[in-house]
């Protein structure tokens, strides 16, 4: 997941399967080794107990030897496999040649004796009366028996390990099947059939991931609905201005009198200006809805407020509106200058357009308690209280309004406030209408 081009994505199924298989193999080998060692040790103790029991039986008289020394041949004809010898003090040699050192040289107890290239497991006891008893077994035979017994314990586990690995692979694949199923469902969706993913049959560990995807799908659907509504509204709003432009252009071509032509040209230019303003606001609204991450920079509040007023001076002069700065903090603030500029310009433009001729518009930009507060007050009649919420809707205009406008200015400011954690407050006052934009710093 390092983002390098050409690098194939790793398979989670394969990664989990091989990780689990590797762990199982390592632990199987460790368990097998411990099991083999434990089985071998247990077999050796059992064989030692047999040697001890033989000695106990002879010592108690329950087992009688036919001769002072008795031997058992190896089943494969490789010499003696077991020797039992009872020697009394001062007794003559038995005449049987055994591959062991003299009995009197061996101490009591269990011991390993190497003699003539062979190892023996020997148990020596001193009986009452001074007799010495030796029970010996060739270590090769013992080791072979212990080895075979340990292998019989180990082999079933080794034989079942490959089957266990196959079962683990199948279980891992089955456990991740819901992920593959969800991927197929997502791949099969488009902008028409886009819907939330079902949580039925989803493992608990995947539910947070699925719910996050569903929240993302919900936001995406909302954005698509907004986009379709925006396109439909924009097309509807542009239809009338474009139709008017077409009629005025046709009217201009039919004009024969120069004075009449100039009048019609002025009307056409005004219509073009209104249409350009509408398109500019549509683009501003689209940018505010789908803007990228805010780009912060140090901005002079005095310069920001001055630029916003300058853009509306021509309209204000045409209506004889007194437009000016009432209060501005002459400081620099780190903020998203583009968003604040668009919001303040729309507030000022909205106030100038809707205030009556000869009215007054005051602008204030101050830094207050973690917010940049942009306040625009006009001396107009305001908005009916029951319309205050609706004036922030796109293309909505208060019934009976005669001033030119598109109904987008306050909608743009409201959208910018929503995206930047701020708020827009609209209020009717005794001295006019107040619009205040709070931008979170």
TrEMBL record:
GO CC term, one of those recorded: plasma membrane
Gene3D superfamilies, per database record: 1.10.287.130, Histidine kinase-like ATPase, C-terminal domain
Database matches in SUPFAM superfamilies: ATPase domain of HSP90 chaperone/DNA topoisomerase II/histidine kinase (SSF55874), Homodimeric domain of signal transducing histidine kinase (SSF47384)
Domain Histidine kinase: 233-441
Coiled-coil stretches: none
Known EC number: 2.7.13.3
Enzyme kind, highest EC tier: transferase
GO molecular function terms noted in the UniProt entry: phosphorelay sensor kinase activity
Membrane topology: Multi-pass membrane protein
Membrane-crossing residue ranges in chain numbering: 20-40, 154-176
Enzymatic reactions: ATP + protein L-histidine = ADP + protein N-phospho-L-histidine
Record's subcellular location: Membrane
Domain of life: Bacteria
PROSITE patterns recorded: HIS_KIN
Keywords: Kinase, Membrane, Phosphoprotein, Transferase, Transmembrane, Transmembrane helix, Two-component regulatory system
Signal peptide per UniProt: none
PANTHER family, A to Z: SENSOR HISTIDINE KINASE CUSS (PTHR45436:SF15), SENSOR HISTIDINE KINASE YKOH (PTHR45436)
Protein name: histidine kinase
């Amino acid at each position: 997941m390092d983002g390098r081009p050409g690098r194939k994505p790793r398979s989670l199924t394969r990664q989990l399967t091989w990780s689990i298989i590797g762990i199982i193999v390592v632990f199987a080998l460790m368990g097998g080794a411990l099991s083999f060692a434990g089985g071998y040790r247990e077999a050796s103790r059992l064989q030692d107990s047999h040697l001890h029991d033989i000695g106990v039986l002879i010592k108690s008289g329950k087992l009688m030897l036919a001769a002072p020394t008795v031997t058992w041949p190896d089943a494969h004809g490789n010499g003696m496999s077991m020797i039992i010898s009872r020697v009394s003090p001062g007794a003559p040699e038995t005449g049987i040649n055994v591959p062991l050192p003299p009995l009197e040289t061996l101490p009591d107890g269990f011991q390993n004796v190497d003699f003539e290239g062979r190892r023996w497991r020997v148990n020596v006891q001193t009986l009452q009366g001074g007799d010495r008893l030796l029970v010996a077994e060739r270590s090769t035979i013992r080791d072979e028996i212990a080895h075979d017994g340990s292998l019989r314990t180990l082999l079933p586990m080794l034989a079942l390990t490959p089957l266990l690995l196959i079962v683990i692979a199948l279980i891992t694949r089955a456990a991740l099947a819901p992920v593959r199923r969800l991927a197929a469902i997502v791949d099969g969706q488009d902008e028409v059939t886009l819907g939330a993913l079902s949580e039925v049959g989803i493992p608990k560990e995947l539910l947070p991931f699925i719910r996050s995807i569903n929240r993302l799908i919900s936001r995406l659907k909302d954005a698509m609905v907004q986009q379709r509504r925006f396109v439909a509204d924009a097309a509807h709003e542009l239809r009338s201005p474009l139709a008017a432009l077409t009629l005025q252009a046709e009217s201009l071509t039919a004009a024969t009198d120069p004075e009449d032509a100039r009048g019609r040209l002025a009307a056409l230019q005004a219509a073009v200006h209104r249409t350009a303003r509408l398109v500019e606001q549509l683009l501003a609204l689209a940018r505010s809805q789908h803007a990228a991450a805010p780009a912060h920079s140090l901005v002079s509040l005095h310069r920001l407020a001055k630029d916003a007023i300058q853009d509306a001076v021509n309209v204000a002069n045409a209506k004889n509106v007194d437009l000016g700065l009432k209060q501005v903090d002459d400081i620099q603030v780190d903020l998203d200058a583009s968003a604040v500029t668009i919001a303040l310009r729309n507030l000022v433009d909205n106030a100038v357009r809707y205030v009556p001729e000869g009215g007054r518009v005051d602008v204030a930009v101050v830094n207050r308690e973690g917010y940049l507060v942009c306040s625009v007050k006009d001396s107009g009649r305001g908005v009916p209280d029951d319309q205050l919420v609706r004036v922030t809707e796109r293309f909505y205009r208060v019934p009976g309004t005669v001033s030119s406008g598109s109904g987008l200015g306050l909608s743009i400011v409201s959208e910018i406030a929503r995206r930047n954690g701020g708020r827009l407050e609209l209020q009717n006052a005794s001295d006019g209408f107040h619009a205040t934009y709070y931008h979170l710093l």
